[in-house]
From TrEMBL, chain A:
<dbReference type="Pfam" id="PF06602">
    <property type="entry name" value="Myotub-related"/>
</dbReference>
<dbReference type="InterPro" id="IPR029021">
    <property type="entry name" value="Prot-tyrosine_phosphatase-like"/>
</dbReference>
<dbReference type="InterPro" id="IPR010569">
    <property type="entry name" value="Myotubularin-like_Pase_dom"/>
</dbReference>
<comment type="similarity">
    <text>Belongs to the protein-tyrosine phosphatase family. Non-receptor class myotubularin subfamily.</text>
</comment>
<protein>
    <recommendedName>
        <fullName>Myotubularin phosphatase domain-containing protein</fullName>
    </recommendedName>
</protein>
<dbReference type="InterPro" id="IPR011993">
    <property type="entry name" value="PH-like_dom_sf"/>
</dbReference>
<dbReference type="InterPro" id="IPR030564">
    <property type="entry name" value="Myotubularin"/>
</dbReference>
<feature type="domain" description="Myotubularin phosphatase">
    <location>
        <begin position="147"/>
        <end position="522"/>
    </location>
</feature>
Automatic annotation (TrEMBL), chain B:
<dbReference type="InterPro" id="IPR048994">
    <property type="entry name" value="PH-GRAM_MTMR6-9"/>
</dbReference>
<feature type="binding site">
    <location>
        <begin position="276"/>
        <end position="277"/>
    </location>
    <ligand>
        <name>substrate</name>
    </ligand>
</feature>
<dbReference type="Pfam" id="PF06602">
    <property type="entry name" value="Myotub-related"/>
</dbReference>
<feature type="binding site">
    <location>
        <begin position="339"/>
        <end position="345"/>
    </location>
    <ligand>
        <name>substrate</name>
    </ligand>
</feature>
<dbReference type="GO" id="GO:0016787">
    <property type="term" value="F:hydrolase activity"/>
</dbReference>
<dbReference type="InterPro" id="IPR030564">
    <property type="entry name" value="Myotubularin"/>
</dbReference>
<keyword id="KW-0378">Hydrolase</keyword>
<feature type="active site" description="Phosphocysteine intermediate">
    <location>
        <position position="339"/>
    </location>
</feature>
<dbReference type="InterPro" id="IPR011993">
    <property type="entry name" value="PH-like_dom_sf"/>
</dbReference>
Length: 567, 556
C-alpha cells in the first residue's frame, strides 16, 4: 500500500500547536506515512515535535467558516470559480494520544484541516502489521544485525543448572503447532515427554499446557502457568495433565493452584467448554480462587480514571468519588495482593504453585511477574527486569497487538483492548515507591515502557505472540527496544541511583493507604509532575557526585564506586 | 502521686496497633506521675514503651474477655495501644488512674512544669531567647517609613490576646488603633503579619468587625485606609474573610459580621469558605477512623476519605493562602485577613501565605519563627484547642494540625523546596500536644507571662534546633529554583493525599524498611567528608578507609 494515497495535504503553514507544559507555537505542520511533524518557525526558537501517528488514540475536529456572514454576497463568486478555499475559514484538530497527552492544532483552511484529520484517522490505525513504523525505523546508531532480544528460553535453561535434574527443555512447539501463543522452547518436568505434552495441550485452552516460569532457588519450589483445563460440562479429564502436575510436586506433599477467577466464574466456564481442576483428579493440589478483573472491565476502568484525571474540577468530593468509581486502584490492590499470595505460597509455605485464569495470557502473567519481583532479587535489576518482561510477556504470548490497539481516549468500539500491561507497570511502580532502594530501574523506565507498548519505533511489542513475530520477520526487520534501553546513555536515565541489592523478599503493603495514584503516568502532562522529576534528577546528581568523590579520594574504594557508576 | 491506684501490674499484654504489630508482647506495666511505661518480659530485648499522660486523648475499657480485661489507649499523635490486664480489679485501677492522669485540671500538673532537664537558670533563659521575633520583622525590613512598631498594646490593655509588640501602618495613630480595637471582636485590631519587601504589599490580620447590620466606626475605616496607604503602589486592599459567606452573614445578627463595602472605600471583600472548628473536629475524627480500619477495601477507604471531608478542608486552607500570596506577590495588593475571632482560620491562612511568599519560612528555623509569630504570639488558643487541661471539649479542634498538614502537602508537591523533612513536622505536631515544653502552653502571650512560664519551663525551639540534623531534607538546596521566590502550588483535588505518616503508622514496620531520605542524608554527609578529605589529599595516606555503604548503615 502507498501511504501517499492517504495524504491529500502533506504540509500546512501557519499552524498553531498547543501542547501541555509548553507555550503555544506557530509553525509548519507536516504529515508523513507514520509521523506528524510540527516545526516552529518563531524567531530565535527552533522547536520540533515529532509524533508517531500510531500514538494517536483519538482525534476530534471542529471547523468553522468565518466567511458565513460575508458568504452571502460572495456566494456566487465562489461557486463560479469552484475554488472552495475559504481564506477566512479554519479548523481545530484535538489530538488525544495513547500516552495521555492532548495536543491541539489550529489549522488555517477548512479543507486542509479536514484532509489532515482524515489522514491521521487512517494512518494512526493501520491494520496490516507489516506497514507499521518499526519496519521502517532505521536509526544510524544501530544495525539490524545487532543482537535481538536479551535472552531466550534455551539460554535461560542452560544457565539454570539447578533445573537440569528434574526439568527439561522441550521443543515440542518448534513450529508453533502445539500452542500457537507459546514460544518454540518451553521448560517442563523431565518425566513428561513430548507426546504427553501434545495431549495435555489439547486439554488446555489455546494449547497453553503447564510450563515452568519460575524456579525458587532457596527451596526448589516453582511457579507454573497455563490456561484453564477444558473439562467442559461433562467434566472430562486428562491423565497426562494430571501426571504432568503430579511430576511438578514430586516428593512434596502438595501444591497450590491459584485460579484468577471467582469460583462461580470458573464453574460457569464449564458451560463454554472450559473449567477447573477438580479435587478428585488433582488430589494433591489445593485450589485458591482469587477473582481478578480482566478484559473490557479493566479497559473501562482505565477510561474512567483518565477521564477523572482530565477533569479540571475544583471539587474534592467529586474527585475522590470519581477515583473510587473508576476502581483502578482496587485492581492495583487485587493484583498486588494476589501476587503476594502467590509469593507467600512459594517463599513462606514452601509449595509449588500453578497459576491460571481462563486464557492464561493476561492476569496469569501479571501475578507471576509481580511474584517474581517480590521474591527474586535478580529480576529487580534493570537487565533483570527487562529480561523478565521479555520472557513473561513477549515470549509468553501476551497479545500486545490486541490489548494495546487503543487506549483510554479512543472512540472506537472496544474489541480485545485491555490495559493489563499498564496495570503491571502501575503495580511495579507501587513496589518501586514502597521499596525505593530495592529496584534497579527508575520510574522513567516504567513510563517509557507504558508509551512503547502502545506505539513504538521498535519491534519488541509487535504482534500477539512469537509465531506472528516469526512470520513477520520482526527479528530480521526491526530493532529491539530492550537492547536500546540498555545502551549507556539510556542506562543512565533508566537506572535507579538509590539501588542497593537486597536478598530479602520485598512484601508490598496492599493497605489502601499504601497504594497511590501513579501521578507520573496519569498526571504526566500536568506541571507539578515536573517538580517531582526535578527531585529525581537531584537524587541522581547527588549519588553520582558521591560516587565520583569516593572514586577520587580513596583508591581502595574503587570497587564500590564502580558499583555506583553501574547503577 | 495521689491519682495512681496501682503503680505496677505484671503479666500485661500490650499491642501497639498503630505500628502494625500483630502479636501482643508480655511485660510489666508501670504508672508514673508523668508516663505509662511498659517493659517487655523478653530478657533479650526488654523493649520499653513510654506514653506521656498528656499525649493520651482517650482511655476506653472494653468488655471483659476470658483472658482478662482490656484498656484501649488512644493518643493525640494517633498511636493506639491495646492493654490486656489479667485481673479485672487491676484493670479498673489502671483505667481510673489513666482517666484522671490524662486529664490534668491545673497547669501545675503538666509535664513541662515538673520536667527539669539538666540545665541551669542561664541556659533556660538562653533557651527562651533563641526565638527572636523582632529579628524576623527586621529581616522583613521593618520598621521602615511605612510600618512602625506600636506600643499601644505593650501592657495588653488594648487587646488581651495580642502580643505586646505589633506593627501597624505609620499613619495609624493610637486613637485610631484604640477605636478600631473597640469595633473588632475581642479587640483584635488590624496588625501586620507579613511584609513583602519586593512589592511593598503586606498581609495583615484582625478579627471580624462588630458591624451588625448597619454599624460603622470611623477609626476602623481610617485604619483600613491607613493599611492601603502603607502600600504606595495600590489604590485598594483585599479584605479576605476566611469564613463561608453564609456564616459571616449569620454573624451580623449577633452584632458582628463583615465589612460593609459602602462604608469602607477601596476595599474588595473576598470570602474563602473555611469551615469552623466544630466541623474540623468531627472531620478529623472521621479521618482517624479511616486510618484505624482493620482491613478496608479500596472502596471503603476512598469512600471514608471522601466522607470525612478532611482533604476538602485542607484544600480550602491552601486555597486561602494561595489567594493571599498571589494578591501580594503578583498584584502587589495588601490583604487584611480575618475570620470570627481571628485566631484560628486567620492564623492558618496568614501562615500558609507566608510559607508560599517567603523561602525563609521553608527552612527549619524559618518555620519555627513563623509558628511563633502567627500562632504563639498572635494568641492562638493552644491550651484550649489541644486540650492541655480538662475543659470544654467543644473548644478542642485540630486547627494547627491543618496548617502543619498544608506544609506537608506542599512538601510533597515540591520535594526540593523545604529544608525540613516530614519528621520535623511530626515532631512539632507532637510537641504542640505533649506539654513537655512551655512554648505552646496557655492561650496567649499575657497568660504565659502571668504564669511566668519563661522561668518555670523550657522552650521547645532550641531543642528541635539541636536535633536539626535528623530533621533535614537532603534534597533541599537553598540556591535551587524550587526553593526560591514564591511557591505556586497546584490545588487541583488530585494533588492532595492522605498524610499517612501522621495518621497511620502501620506501614512503617514492613521490612526491609527503606528510606531514600536517610540514604541521601548519608550520601550527602559522606560527600562533604570526602570533599574535605580531597582538599587535604596530600595528608591522606594512600588506601584510606573506603566509604561504607550508606544504605546498610542507616536502615533499621
Amino acid at each position: 500500500m502507498e501511504f501517499s494515497e492517504h495524504i491529500k495535504t502533506a504540509n500546512v503553514e501557519d499552524v498553531v500547536l498547543r501542547q501541555p507544559l509548553h507555550p503555544p507555537g506557530r509553525g509548519t505542520l507536516c504529515i508523513t506515512g507514520h509521523h506528524l511533524l510540527f516545526s516552529d518557525r518563531e524567531e530565535g526558537s527552533c522547536r520540533q515535535v515529532l509524533l508517531l501517528l500510531r500514538n494517536i488514540d483519538a482525534i476530534e475536529k471542529s471547523v468553522e467558516n468565518l466567511l458565513t456572514c460575508s458568504g452571502l454576497f460572495s456566494n456566487a463568486g465562489l461557486s463560479q470559480s469552484g475554488v472552495c478555499r475559504l481564506s477566512g475559514s479554519s479548523g481545530t484538530i484535538t489530538i488525544k494520544c495513547k500516552d495521555l497527552r492532548v495536543l491541539q492544532l489550529d489549522i488555517p483552511g477548512m479543507e486542509e484541516c479536514l484532509n489532515i484529520a482524515r489522514s491521521i484517522e487512517t494512518l494512526s490505525c493501520l491494520d496490516s502489521m507489516s506497514e507499521l513504523y518499526p519496519f521502517f525505523y532505521r536509526p544510524s546508531s544501530a544495525s539490524l544485525r545487532d543482537q535481538w532480544g536479551l535472552s531466550s528460553l534455551e539460554r535461560h535453561y542452560s544457565q539454570m543448572k539447578e533445573l537440569h535434574d528434574r526439568w527439561r527443555l522441550s521443543t515440542v512447539n518448534r513450529d508453533f503447532s502445539v500452542c500457537p501463543s507459546y514460544p518454540q522452547a518451553v521448560i517442563v518436568p523431565k518425566s513428561t515427554d513430548d507426546d504427553m505434552l501434545e495431549k495435555v495441550a489439547k486439554f488446555r485452552q489455546g494449547g497453553r499446557f503447564p510450563v515452568l516460569c519460575y524456579y525458587h532457588k532457596k527451596n526448589g519450589m516453582v511457579i507454573m502457568r497455563s490456561s484453564q483445563p477444558l473439562t467442559g460440562a461433562n467434566r472430562k479429564h486428562c491423565r497426562e495433565d494430571e501426571q504432568l502436575l503430579q511430576a511438578v510436586i514430586d516428593g512434596s506433599d502438595k501444591g497450590y493452584i491459584i485460579d484468577t477467577r471467582s469460583s462461580q466464574q470458573a464453574l460457569q466456564a464449564r458451560m463454554t467448554g472450559g473449567g477447573l481442576e477438580s479435587k478428585s483428579c488433582y488430589s494433591s493440589w489445593k485450589r485458591l480462587q482469587r477473582q481478578m478483573e480482566r478484559g473490557k472491565a479493566l479497559q473501562e476502568s482505565l477510561i474512567k480514571l483518565v477521564e477523572a484525571c482530565g477533569e479540571e474540577s475544583n471539587n474534592m468530593d467529586r474527585w475522590l468519588s470519581k477515583l473510587e468509581n473508576s476502581k483502578w486502584l482496587s485492581h492495583v490492590q487485587t493484583a498486588l495482593s494476589t501476587a503476594g499470595l502467590l509469593a507467600e505460597c512459594v517463599e513462606r509455605d514452601g509449595h509449588s504453585v500453578l497459576v491460571h485464569g481462563s486464557e492464561g495470557t493476561d492476569s496469569t502473567l501479571l501475578i507471576s511477574t509481580l511474584a517474581q519481583l517480590i521474591m527474586d532479587p535478580s529480576c529487580r535489576t534493570l537487565e533483570g527486569f527487562l529480561t523478565l518482561l521479555e520472557r513473561e510477556w513477549v515470549q509468553a504470548g501476551h497479545p500486545f497487538q490486541q490489548r494495546c490497539a487503543h487506549s483510554a481516549h479512543s472512540h472506537a468500539r472496544l474489541q480485545q483492548e485491555s490495559p493489563v500491561f499498564l496495570l503491571l507497570l502501575d503495580c511495579v511502580w507501587q513496589l518501586w515507591r514502597q521499596f525505593p532502594l530495592a529496584l534497579g530501574f527508575s520510574e522513567a523506565l516504567l513510563l517509557r515502557l507504558a508509551t512503547e507498548a502502545y506505539a513504538s519505533d521498535y519491534g519488541t511489542f509487535l504482534g500477539n505472540n512469537q509465531q506472528e513475530r516469526c512470520a513477520l520477520g520482526v527479528k530480521e526487520n526491526t530493532h529491539c527496544l530492550f537492547q536500546a534501553l540498555l545502551r549507556p546513555r539510556e542506562r543512565d536515565c533508566y537506572s535507579n541511583p538509590l539501588y542497593e541489592h537486597t536478598e530479602l523478599a520485598i512484601w508490598p503493603s496492599v493497605y489502601p493507604q499504601s497504594l497511590q495514584l501513579w501521578r507520573g503516568f496519569f498526571l504526566r502532562w500536568t506541571p507539578q509532575t515536573h517538580h517531582l522529576e526535578e527531585a529525581q534528577e537531584e537524587i541522581r546528581n547527588m549519588v553520582i557526585e558521591w560516587g565520583k568523590l569516593a572514586l577520587s579520594s580513596c583508591p581502595a574504594s574503587t570497587r564500590r564506586s564502580e558499583d555506583v557508576q553501574n547503577m | 502521686m495521689e491519682h495512681i491506684r496501682t503503680p505496677k501490674v505484671e503479666n500485661v499484654r500490650l499491642l501497639d496497633r498503630s505500628s502494625g504489630q500483630r502479636k501482643a508482647s508480655i511485660g510489666t506495666l508501670y504508672l508514673s506521675a508523668t508516663h505509662t511505661i511498659f517493659v517487655e518480659n523478653n530478657p533479650e530485648t526488654r523493649k520499653e514503651s513510654w506514653v506521656l499522660h498528656s499525649m493520651v486523648s482517650s482511655v476506653e475499657r472494653t468488655p471483659t474477655i476470658p483472658a482478662g480485661s482490656q484498656v484501649i489507649l488512644r493518643c493525640k499523635d494517633f498511636r493506639v495501644f491495646q492493654i490486656l490486664v489479667p485481673q479485672e480489679r487491676d484493670c479498673l485501677d489502671v483505667h481510673t488512674s489513666l482517666v484522671r492522669l490524662s486529664r490534668p485540671e491545673k497547669y501545675s500538673e503538666l509535664y513541662c512544669l515538673s520536667f527539669n532537664p539538666n540545665v541551669n537558670k542561664e541556659e533556660r533563659q538562653e533557651s527562651w531567647s533563641f526565638m527572636d521575633l523582632t529579628a524576623d520583622y527586621k529581616r522583613m525590613g521593618l520598621p521602615n517609613n511605612l510600618w512602625v512598631s506600636t506600643a499601644a498594646n505593650s501592657e495588653y490593655r488594648v487587646c488581651e490576646t495580642y502580643p505586646s509588640e505589633l506593627f501597624v501602618p505609620k499613619s495609624a495613630t493610637p486613637p485610631i488603633i484604640v477605636g478600631s480595637a473597640r469595633f473588632r471582636s475581642r479587640g483584635r485590631f488590624p496588625a501586620l503579619s507579613y511584609f513583602h519587601q519586593d512589592t511593598l504589599a503586606a498581609v495583615c490580620r484582625c478579627s471580624q468587625p462588630l458591624s451588625g447590620f448597619s454599624g460603622r466606626c470611623q477609626e476602623d475605616e481610617a485604619m483600613l485606609q491607613a493599611l492601603m496607604k502603607a502600600n504606595p503602589g495600590s489604590d485598594y486592599i483585599y479584605v479576605v474573610d476566611t469564613r463561608p459567606k453564609l456564616n459571616a452573614m449569620a454573624n451580623r445578627a449577633a452584632g458582628k459580621g463583615y465589612e460593609n463595602e459602602d462604608h469602607y472605600t477601596n476595599i474588595k471583600l473576598h470570602f474563602i469558605g473555611i469551615e469552623n472548628i466544630h466541623v474540623m473536629r468531627s472531620s478529623q475524627q472521621k479521618i482517624i477512623d479511616v486510618g484505624e480500619m482493620r482491613f478496608p477495601s479500596m472502596t471503603d477507604f476512598l469512600y471514608g476519605l471522601e466522607n470525612s471531608g478532611w482533604l476538602k478542608h485542607i484544600k480550602a486552607i491552601l486555597d486561602a493562602g494561595l489567594f493571599i500570596a498571589r494578591a501580594v506577590a503578583d498584584e502587589g495588593i495588601s490583604v487584611l485577613v480575618h475570620c470570627s475571632d481571628g485566631w484560628d482560620r486567620t492564623a492558618q491562612a496568614c501562615s500558609v501565605a507566608s510559607i508560599l511568599l517567603d523561602p525563609y519560612y521553608r527552612t527549619i528555623r524559618g518555620l519555627m519563627v513563623l509558628i511563633e509569630r502567627d500562632w504563639v504570639s498572635f494568641g492562638h488558643k493552644f491550651s484550649h484547642r489541644y486540650g492541655h487541661l480538662d475543659g470544654d471539649p467543644k473548644e478542642v479542634s485540630p486547627v494547627i494540625d491543618q496548617f502543619v498538614e498544608c506544609v506537608w502537602q506542599l512538601s510533597e508537591q515540591f520535594p526540593c523546596a523545604f529544608e525540613f523533612n516530614e519528621r520535623f513536622l511530626v515532631a512539632i505536631h507532637t510537641h504542640i500536644y505533649s506539654c513537655q515544653y512551655g512554648t505552646f502552653l496557655g492561650n496567649c502571650q499575657k497568660e504565659r507571662r502571668d504564669m511566668r512560664l519563661g522561668e518555670r519551663t523550657h522552650s521547645v525551639w532550641p531543642e528541635l534546633w539541636k536535633e536539626r540534623a535528623q530533621y533535614t531534607n537532603p534534597l533541599y538546596r537553598a540556591e535551587q529554583s524550587q526553593s526560591q521566590g514564591v511557591l505556586r502550588p497546584n490545588t487541583t483535588p488530585y494533588c492532595f493525599k492522605m498524610w499517612k505518616g501522621l495518621y497511620n503508622h502501620a506501614e512503617k514496620s514492613t521490612p526491609p524498611r527503606q528510606s531514600p531520605a536517610d540514604f541521601l542524608s548519608t550520601v550527602r554527609e559522606e560527600s562533604q567528608q570526602l570533599e574535605e578529605e580531597l582538599a587535604n589529599q596530600q595528608e591522606v595516606p594512600p588506601g584510606g578507609t573506603p566509604p561504607p555503604s550508606p544504605g546498610l548503615q542507616t536502615r533499621g
